[in-house]
Specification:
This protein has 800 residues and is of the alpha/beta class. 53% of the residues lie in helices and 16% in strands. The longest helix is centred in the C-terminal third of the chain and has 38 residues, at 594-631.
Length: 800
């Protein structure tokens, strides 16, 4: 494989890069700081706030502009958090910039993939993702194009074959010249077309919040117009009197802080996870991980360290002849030197059997994750190496007890065997030398034409933190499935050492038919001898049974399953293809970070769900009261500054502090349904109490100012009741939040009474407030019981 004379020089590469012929990655063109600023300032609701502010200024209601500082602070916080999260992620991406081995100046060099240029000669080997369109100029590889075409078959690429960017190398090694780079490459064209299509599927929580925001955005304009028209043209109020009441109703209906809280919470999560060396390719993954009830893991790199060692090598016939053993050791060393595979198994073999290259290699077949073996033909014979079950086939039973005894110690067994071909050994060997893919029935070796020579025993040390990590998942009610290509007995023993529940329930997946997989997924914990396609089918079976599935992996054989899982997690030390395909990347390849990631997701959803309830109380109540005022031709009883004060101490401040609190409660149910059912008791209590207060005031001639102030305090009381309810069970932190907000509102009402339109509190106002406050408690209590029962019935029906 010597085509280095065809490579570019560093000077030529630099010139092409300056000419714009570099491999600039579409997915690396992220948001700029200006994009983040625009997203937080030029919003639909900010436009509504601006219009309302102009109308208030025109009407002279200056003290009703108290909502503006809150809006400005919201935008500034959003900008600050967005830029901070972007900067941290940018630094993290630089630390893990994907590189490629390129031939420059006749030498192999590691170069970031966005510094590759048109015409570069790149070395592709097992585990690499094809980073730009190319054509093979030397060598042979097997590629999987499933990420592009959806087809899982391995495709052999030889000299002259075209390589599509986005596919990945399953096995082999080759030199390829880049023919299309950057935006011209196949994967970039796909991504550009995708950007013209609807955006990727959003998480349930984000979709639910978008629905709330969209509904509010749709309804506020007609409601605002109706309030203004009925106030001016039906009630005969002046422009200056009508505008503040209309603005108060609209402010209450706008859930502007909800979307901001979502952005801030997810942004803070990104920052916290980045500090733990966890990178998110997809923000949806935070929520998905919080909902996960089944996690599928590979043995190597997840339960065990990425390092692999050859523990021993023994003659297959059970003898201990040193001369024979030395002969086979030399033979295995030559075999390793001929096969171009680049993975941790091969590195372990190279360390134990130093390459000699004393034999002439006629042809080879790289390791296939589908058939579990590799093959080499020397001038004096052919040999294979791989999983004993696949190499020995019908002769496996004769060696099963020996192999199981090694597997029972947690050792992985490789079989090195001679390959004879037909009865005389000539016909199939000649066919093999002409066709590197060894065209045997179904691509499988036949035990009758193989003779086991040496069993090579490999081991991976179990990660130190593995037992505590799996103990956490057990405590949280998350099932663990171990899916591996290794011997099921070996995997089972390793899983036991890691403390995985039911690790003794194992099955050899090579014995399963497609129709058996769904039942096996329910019954077994450990799956051995799993093909990449079967990994994918197991994940699909679990999802069909209603599970939310996470899949971890580090190799190209995991990608199909990772693609179908609800959330995919890759080890950065694994293949480039796995890292690019995953939603979550563990930069230090430390699986013990998983509890922190799951806890972060649960903190987000539980706390946003809790805070969303507070926002919806205000939004639903304001909408109902606005419609009530329109229908009954009444002036909206509250002022914008009063709504601002209640929102600040009942929603904004407690919502922010509660969103920061750790919360590992298991996520259940649908986000929108849950927050609506939790918000309805308080929203209906607010509406009926204040509507009755307004009717009472109009009937008995109570001053509108008294009604307005009494309504403000009544709204606050109900707000603190719902705040206390969602804080159950109450702890010291939550008590400090509740009493801090109560104290803050009392101080604001006394110190800034003019600002918040509470300049005068009459005896009538106090009496009204006390009377209706006493009535609200039982009303809300019974409504809460009603909606709690309704929620429980809906959850029970969903389970059925």
């Amino acid at each position: 494989m010597d085509n280095t004379n065809l490579s570019l020089s560093s000077e030529e590469a630099q010139k092409l890069l300056l000419e714009g012929k570099g491999n600039t990655q579409i997915d690396n063109i992220g948001k700029t700081n200006w994009d983040i600023i625009k997203e937080n300032i030029f919003t639909y609701f900010n436009l509504i706030f601006f219009i309302m502010a102009v109308l208030l200024v025109i009407s002279g209601a200056w003290n009703s502009l108290t909502f503006l500082p809150v809006v400005i602070c919201n935008a500034l916080i959003g900008i600050f958090q967005g830029i901070k999260a972007k900067n941290i992620l940018d630094r993290l991406k630089v630390l893990h910039q994907t590189t490629a081995t390129v031939i420059r100046d006749g030498q192999e060099k590691l170069v970031p993939i966005d510094k590759l240029v048109l015409g570069d000669v790149v070395v592709f080997s097992s585990g690499n993702q094809i980073c730009a369109d190319a054509v093979v100029i030397d060598g042979e590889i097997a590629v999987n194009e499933s990420l592009l075409t959806g087809e899982a078959d391995e495709i052999i690429k030889t000299s002259g074959s075209e390589l599509m960017s986005g596919s990945f190398v399953v096995s082999g090694k080759c030199l390829a010249r880049l023919t299309k780079v950057g935006q011209d490459s196949y994967i970039s064209q796909l991504m550009l077309r995708a950007k013209k299509m609807p955006s990727a599927e959003q998480s349930e929580m984000v979709k639910s919040i978008n629905k709330i925001v969209a509904f509010a955005g749709l309804i506020i304009i007609p409601v605002g117009i109706c309030l203004f028209v009925q106030s001016v043209f039906i009630q005969g109020n002046s422009f200056a009197e009508s505008i503040p009441s209309m603005v108060a109703a609209l402010i209450g209906m706008i859930p502007e802080g909800l979307y901001l809280l979502l952005s801030i919470t997810l942004g803070l999560s990104t920052i916290r996870l980045a500090k733990e060396k966890v990178m998110l390719h997809d923000m949806r993954s935070i929520e998905t991980l919080a909902r996960v009830d089944t996690i599928c893991v590979d043995k190597t790199g997840t339960i065990t360290d990425n390092s692999m060692l050859v523990a021993d090598a023994v003659l297959a016939d059970g003898t201990e002849d040193p001369e024979v053993f030395d002969y086979y050791v030399n033979l295995i060393a030559d075999y390793i030197g001929c096969v171009p595979d680049d993975n941790i198994t091969m590195h372990a073999l190279e360390d134990y059997f130093p390459i000699r290259n004393s034999r002439t290699c006629v042809s080879f077949r790289s390791f296939s994750s589908k058939y579990k073996y590799s093959a080499v033909q020397f001038t004096d014979g052919s040999y294979v190496m791989g999983a004993p079950e696949f190499i020995l086939q019908d002769r496996y039973e004769a060696y099963k007890d020996v192999i199981d005894s090694y597997a029972g110690r947690g050792l992985r067994v490789l079989c090195f065997a001679s390959y004879y071909g037909g009865a005389d050994g000539k016909e199939i060997i000649d066919e093999y030398s002409d066709n590197l893919s060894v065209e045997l029935p179904d691509g499988e070796l036949k035990g009758a034409v193989t003779k086991p020579l040496v069993f090579i025993l490999l081991q991976n040390p179990v990660r130190e933190a593995a037992p505590s990590t799996f103990a956490y998942f057990k405590k949280q009610g998350v099932d663990v499935k171990v899916i591996s290509g290794d011997n099921p007995r070996t995997v089972s023993e390793v899983a036991k050492k890691a403390g995985i529940d039911n690790a003794d329930r194992y099955v050899d997946a090579s014995t399963l038919e497609d129709e058996d997989i769904r039942d096996a997924a329910r019954k077994y914990t450990v799956f051995g001898r799993v093909s990449p396609e079967q990994k994918q089918k197991i994940v699909r079976a679990l999802k069909r049974d209603g599970h939310t599935v996470a899949m971890t992996g580090d190799g190209v054989n995991d990608i199909l399953a990772m693609k179908d899982a609800d959330c995919s997690i890759a080890m950065a030390a694994g293949s480039d293809a796995a890292v690019q395909a995953a939603q979550v990347v563990l930069m230090d390849s430390d699986f013990s970070k998983m509890p922190k990631i799951v806890a972060e997701g649960r903190r987000n959803i539980n706390n946003i769900e809790r805070t969303a309830t507070l926002f919806l109380v205000k939004n639903i109540f304001s909408l109902l009261l606005a419609v009530f005022s329109i229908i009954n031709v009444l002036t909206y009883p509250l002022q914008p500054s009063q709504i601002t004060m209640v929102s600040l101490f009942n929603i904004g401040i407690p919502g922010f502090f509660l969103a920061m609190e750790p919360n590992n409660k298991r996520i259940k149910g649908h986000f929108l349904v849950k927050v609506l059912l939790k918000a309805m008791p308080a929203a209906l209590t607010d509406f009926f109490a204040i509507a009755a207060l307004v009717v009472f005031g109009n009937t008995f001639g109570v001053e509108p100012t008294d009604v307005s102030v009494a309504a403000t305090f009544l709204l606050a009381i109900v707000g603190f009741i719902i705040l206390t309810n969602i804080c159950n069970p109450v702890n010291k932190y939550r008590l400090r939040v509740i009493f801090g907000c109560i104290g803050g509102m009392i101080l604001a009402a006394f110190i800034f009474n003019d600002l918040f339109s509470i300049s005068y509190v009459s005896v009538e106002c106090v009496m009204l407030f006390v009377l209706f406050a006493i009535a609200t408690e039982p009303f809300m209590r019974y409504l809460t019981i009603l909606f709690t029962n309704l929620e429980e019935r809906m959850q029970h029906k969903a389970k059925l």
